[in-house]
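Pair request: fold both.
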Amino acid sequence: MLNKKTIITLTILLIFPLILTACSNDTVEVKTAEDNAFLMDTLVQMRAHGENADAAVEESMKRIEEIENLMSKTIETSDIYQLNNNPNQKIEVSKQSLEVLKKAKNYAEITEGDFDPTIGALVELWGIGTKNASVPPENKIKAALANTGYQYLNLDDNYAKIIKAGVKLDLGGIAKGYAAEEVKKIVEKNGVEHAFVNLGGNVLVIGDKVDGSSWKIGIQDPRAGRGDVMAIIDAVDLTIVTSGNYERYFEENGKLYHHIIDPKTGYPAENNLLSVSIISHNSFDADALSTAVYVMGLEKGMEFIENIDDVGVMFITKELDVYLSSGLEEIVNINDPDFNLIEGEYSVN
């Protein structure tokens, strides 16, 4: 299918009548279980269909909570809190946290810092998504930038260490993807063949729908406040992770400041994009990629994704132009005439 290779985004999900129900003509009744909870600083929604659906959903929600308790930067017993508050000390961390830290550092390296898990000082300074959000003074941005850099994170066996005081980890751009993949393992272990989980815009579908059709995943119209779906993705065993400037933001002096911070400038990324959606088979990777590619921008981001097997990307620009990477034309259906599919320089046929 693919040749190559954030609580406001809930529209991705909230075509529940479309994506979460089996065909009304089905004659075989399949057991269904669902749950939702506020975890990992977002609304988590899950539904599963199958004999062991109840067990799969219950275990999955518990697992997500466990991951939050390990990787939250605000829970004092978490690995990340301990690392952030004990610089220059080797901290023994869980194998789960170590796995995420290794993946995060790897993506920092291969994206040359467009994704960086040590962005915590900048995130804290801007406070976007909190009541204290405001444009910081330039000198404070420079100070936070000096405390940003994946080279300040050392990983060794079961230990991690921040080697410079002031550097702060923030796994908000990758931990939900890890959680989604853990849910997939639990669902498959329980023999459930049809399931859906949404971690605040990080969507994973397992198998197809009960009636054999593909899941229909809506991509939110990124124009702030509209809450409409501008495209539908036909998905089977896929993850769709979207990063957009409409998810968390504030306005000051007539300018919008969104939550996707460029680790190299210390400011919200400015590149004429409204949103980036990564479509792939692995949510762990897709989570980091959606952030990194948004920071990269259209041209660099498209080239980057085209060189990764089995990963696709959809860009939406401020002009409402849509750019798709190779192969996505088969599964992405734009249903809003305000958006224009651009076939050309950045759209590979």
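--- second member of the pair ---
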Amino acid sequence: MKSVRIYKHGGPDVLIWEETAAPDPGRDLVIVDVKNSSLNHLDIWVRNGIPGIPLPFTPGSDAAGIISAVGENVDQNRVGERVLIQPLIYCGNCASCKRGWENMCSRGGIMGESHPGNHAQKIAVQQSQAVPVPDSLPFPQAAAFALVAQTSYQMLVNRAQLETDDWVMVWGAGSGVGSMAIQIAKAKQARVIAISGSDQKLEKAKNLGADICINYQNDDVIRMVKKETDGKGVDIVFEHVGEATWDISMRSLAKGGRVVTCGATSGARASVNLTHLFFKQQSILGSTMGSLSAFRGSMELLFTGKIVPIVDKIFPMEQIADAHIYLESASQYGKVVLSNE
């Protein structure tokens, strides 16, 4: 079989598609024949170099496929099952796991970051990570779902405590997490302001349910936010851009508002006016990945048709370098998917 391997950090050219040993179905494990996987910005950070990642390494957090073999202690009837991969790794026994904070597990991590990933023809995962999906959900959409949905649900519902009629400002409306955040917020009956630098992406955000669309290249974001919210500002800012947008995010926030962030793609340096923060009783919330409750909550929305994974473009797995280049160009709306078929 073949896998994507990284032997050194760097640009897309360090991604190698090569023959590797097939995984064995150990105890409590299942072998999944990967039909599709997808890219996240995490894959770019891993490729560029996150400290502590052992090389060589196989990236990739998201995947979907068919169980082809099972190990000891796994029901043989699972062979042939269509599944998507829940990429969170957790022990289930530490204090955080017992409180339902599996994404803060002391021994945990994410496939494709702290543990070998899914950009391969076959993978071995814990049986609990292989989650059955119906025939009505195509493999590309299934592979485009877990990480962005789990992350977005954790940010909006579990961390920011999203409520009905909240105003939610979503940066990067064309990204995987952004397109999912719009849908989750609307499914929870919130009001959404989508922000992008592309009118074409904003049109797609509107089709997903965004109430207000702002092109930051042409519009005064703060002025428009204040206008649309009757001068109040937004209740939640969905942040993952970082340094380039932080000041606008804080200035757009209402009294009692929450900025929740899961990334800093434009840079990690940010400043905060502490007087405004405590006087307006605002909150800044960090969020990484998502707990099992976030995964289950997002799956319920998926299976009831309230959210849909957005696939922008599909590349053959062996063209992963081209897929990385495309993702880094910020041309996509939704997810970039890889195919083994």
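Observation on the second member. Residues 2-145+310-339 form a domain with the Quinone Oxidoreductase; Chain A, domain 1 fold (CATH 3.90.180.10).
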